[in-house]
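Quick illustration, no need to memorize.
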Amino acid sequence: MGGCLSNESSKKPSLETSRWSYCGLDEFERRVNPLIDNIKLSRYKRNILKKRYTKLVIYYENYAADINKKYNICRIIISVGSMILPTLQTIQNNETVIAYKDEIFWAAIGTSLGVMISNNLISMFALDRKYIMYAVTAEKLKAIGWKYFELSDMFSTKNHLENWVLFWNEVEKIKKLQVIAEFTDSDDKNHEPNPAFEQSPHNSDVDSESDNTPRTPVPKSHRKTPRNRKHYESESDEDVVINLIDEPHHSKKSVKKAQLSFKKKFDESELKGSIENTITEKKNKLNNKISEVQNEVEEAVEEAVEEAVEEAVEEAVEENVDEVLGHLGKTIHENLKK
């Protein structure tokens, strides 16, 4: 027979994965266990992966799913109750439902209590926060596991056996950060390391609270996090970084170096040429516009002057004609008298 009742690998040791054990396996175990069986590790270490790592991932996944179910139930009660309660209170004193007044009253009381209890359950047990925390922890454990199986990222330079201690250090560190986030108050968490800032593989925490995980002793003479010594005096002029927080005494010198470096790079870049071309084009356009305006003003002034001159000449001619005609009339009048 096939499926879960068949046992083609009955000769395998009891600790290895077989068709019999697949009936009670989770989906994650079904995907990961065949990979674990093919890793070049001892049987004992492969079974540590199955019993510790895979079960830890499944625990967080199931716990997150359970909390998500409870949270969604409470949210549904709050949402539906918030819509039903005003309706019940509105129709409670209506004459058409006077026969069911007591039932409607107690239904409104029950709905109100259900909404308040659900809201308080979410706040008291922090269901939304716990769901996010457990779901993120499960995804981080999956990610570190796949990196170990694939020998990628921090595990890319060594094989599975050499990365064994590093892998478990990362797993236990993720678990420890989850426990710290769950059992500390918001005021205390400000003094704890942030889970988002992961330590490097070389400085990972080797003092985990987990049991049955190998550890590499660290000599006391070596620092876990060696101090990074920066020589600000020997920086070149081409690569200057202004860091006013870490190096306040050299701020003026750093600013001066940055100015010189920026000026040098600006002179060598194409940006300067493009800026100069743009300025030249704008300048030429502005000069042309000024010339056009000057020509228009000169033409307007010439026209105004010509009109003024013509008017003045016409007025002068009219006055002269009048004077000449007056003198001529007087002369004729005098001659006639004689």
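Helices lie at 27-37, 43-91, 101-125, 127-150, 164-183, 186-189, 251-268, 270-337.
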